[in-house]
Amino acid sequence: MAEPQRNTPLLDELKKGPWPSFVTQIEEMADAGKEACDQLLRLLERSYNEKIGHWKHGGIVGVMGYGGGVIGRYNDLPEEFPAIAHFHTMRVNMPSGWFYTSDALRTICDIWDRHGSGLTNMHGSTGDIILLGTTTEHLEPCFAELTANDFDLGGSGSDMRTPSCCVGPARCEWACYDTLALTHDITNHFQDELHRPAFPYKFKIKCSGCPNDCVASIARADLSIIGTWRDRIRIDQAEVRNYAAAGLNIEREVCGNCPTKCIEWDGNELKIDDENCVRCMHCINAMPKALRPGVDTGATILLGAKAPIVEGAQLSSVLVPFMKIEPPYEELYDLIERIWDFWGEHGKNRERVGELMQRVGLGNFLEAIGVEPVPEMVAYPRDNPYIFYEEYFVEEGEEEEEEVEA
Amino acid sequence: MSTQRRTDIGPPHYERFLPPVIKANYGKWKYHEILRPGVMVHVSETGDKLYTVRAGSPRLLSTKGIRRFAELADKYCDGYLRFTSRHNVEFLLTDESKIEPLIAELKAMGHPVGGIGPAISSIVHTQGWVHCHSAATDASGVVKAVMDELIEYFDGTKPVPGKLRIALACCLNMCGAVHCSDIAILGVHRRPPKIQHENLKKLCEIPNVVASCPTAAIRPAEVNGYPSVEIDEDLCMFCANCFSVCPALPMADPLNDGISIWVGGKVSNARSEPKFSKLAIPFLPNNPPRWPEVTEAVRKMVEVWAAHARKYERMGEFIDRIGWPRFFKLTGLEFRKEHIDDYRFAALSYKRSAWLRH
């Protein structure tokens, strides 16, 4: 059958302009003989004409022994687009910090050229290397080649999703703990939870080295581990004066933006009232040569962020104001396991841990996981008087309520 | 193959991929400076320097595209590179003299250099019509159109007061978790699911479907002899959670799907606490291939912010200072009923003081 020439005028529009084009990327694989990419372009052109997608719900596909890491994908026009009738995604666990050598990248490319469409996302929203588009029979051989080259699959479905982190101490002076080491360790410590979905729903972990939160952990991770410090901001007064001499208006742009007004500049010396500093990072961001986080560093642990589905979007909230983050991370792992135990027992199907926390109340949740309430956990104490007091006194001689039969 | 099957090995250790300058200075970085748009230097306590050149990428990369990055890394960075959380690619150099030729080569390949510091960085986004079953709009196409429009804010041609981060999710599932972005582009459905009564029982568990609805709009019902469900359409807020558990309740609809725009969110703790994005525009049509209504709306908001915000001010901080009424006035956006929240804790978003500008 002679294939009619690919005709994609709408997509061709997106090959123009200064931003690099995804259409060009798909097209060059099509031109190199990847039939799947040719058909993907035709199908996408059809979506652009019809203003609707042509992909169906995923089916259950995967590699032996794993319950996650592969997302089944099928199009709804398999007769017209047989080369992408099955077009599954493989999520490959990226190295911490998304560092690569050119050889490692070429290894992945070689494997994916042999077993898939040649299309990827570098990277998916959770952080994995996304290998976009293959058929069921390629899953096992592709997986075998990946693992032979020390790569493994990431998470999908109701499991621990692939943890991710910022660039951390590899290239950042603000990293308050080793985000790369922790991410690598969590990932390996919880391989079973990553690969075999056994939770009520997904659980994401993101590690940011400082409160700038470059991996958006407070918005995108059920468990947000955000670096911070307990002691004083380190000040190099000579460098502060250099910033002033170079034209930075320290009074207005640094002190004026301090959320707790704990920083003062008299034209010669910068003073910080560290007890009132909330570790927002602004002054450090503005004068990186002059100011640095302290040296007694660790992380704030926050819990519960999620996108809207279904009870509404949430940001993570404080669970542990400060924790030292050092191997073997026993305190952190113990906390994670207590959270998973309670969530596993009481979470409803497709209920994120943040929603469970809302449903039972943070107070009850804390009690269940064995964490003492502290004022750092709330923006303010309750302002409604409907308190569930849990005990009351009875008059002497007053009849005790009969115990409920077990 | 008779080799033993390897499983649960985890990712390769990151140390294998760190350039020598990073291994030698791991945890010892002292400060950094932005040298020019898209280029920064990190200086170590040892005096060592590491230069980073950041370039934009379409996120959807072919193996050919990745191999081109690998070749550049070989040529300029001894083979070392990384990617950022916003899909940019970063080349890691120790030889300052190689920065210029690397940038020239990146630009010749069509990868703009920029996105560091006060600038618009790449758009975090989702799959859209390229690969997703629940998309209400495309992702890569809208992103391409918007970044073409905003390229001067990425490459530093047009200076801006602070950081501006845009994200796109093609439905409310928000794989792109856009809900805390300076500008969020969010695909929306506007028509309740079209129930496929003849398939529903075959494809779905009815109790699960009923339980999936956050507003209890779905009830079990027998329709034309099929065990199925009925939906109180007045209660539907188009979350598509029912479709997530039941393929027989499709939401996608060309006449009604489109895009909503949200503003003023952030995740950083700097100056002000992290916050959600708020609704700016309830609906714009899907108008491929270039979504002109969307690019125009985003450009307008960026221009208002760039012209009026103070140094460092993120979009949300800027709006908090000037107030939402003035934001709507400056941008010329229409304020409508849809802007007023009516879900959980809606009243917390009502104005509960007389602090108004007149």
Structure description:
The complex is a heterodimer of chains A (406) and B (358). Chain A is α+β, with helices and mostly antiparallel strands. Chain A has 3 domains: 9-148, Alpha-Beta Plaits (2-Layer Sandwich); 164-228 and 302-391, Sulfite Reductase Hemoprotein, domain 1; 234-292, Alpha-Beta Plaits (2-Layer Sandwich). Chain A contains 14 helices and 16 strands. A 5-stranded mixed sheet of chain A has the order 8-9-10-15-16. In chain A, helix 4 runs antiparallel to helix 5 (136-148) and helix 13 (353-360) crosses helix 14. The longest helix of chain A is centred in the last third of the chain and has 17 residues, at 330-346. Chain A is globular and about 80 Å long. The relative contact order of chain A is 0.08. Chain B has 358 residues and is an alpha+beta fold. Helix content of chain B is 27%, strand content 19%. Chain B has 10 helices and 12 strands. A 5-stranded antiparallel sheet of chain B has the order 1-2-3-6-5. A 4-stranded mixed sheet of chain B has the order 7-8-11-12, with helices on one face. In chain B, strands 9-10 form a two-stranded antiparallel sheet. In chain B, strand 2 (39-44) and strand 3 (49-55) form a beta hairpin. In chain B, helix 4 runs parallel beside helix 8. The radius of gyration of chain B is 24 Å and the shape is globular. Chain B starts with 19 loop residues before the first helix and ends in a 27-residue tail after the last helix. Classes of the chains: A alpha+beta (406), B alpha+beta (358). Chains A and B meet through helix 1, helix 2, helix 3, strand 1 and strand 5 of A and strand 1, strand 4, helix 2, strand 5 and helix 4 of B. Strand 5 of chain A pairs antiparallel with strand 5 of chain B, so a sheet runs across the interface.
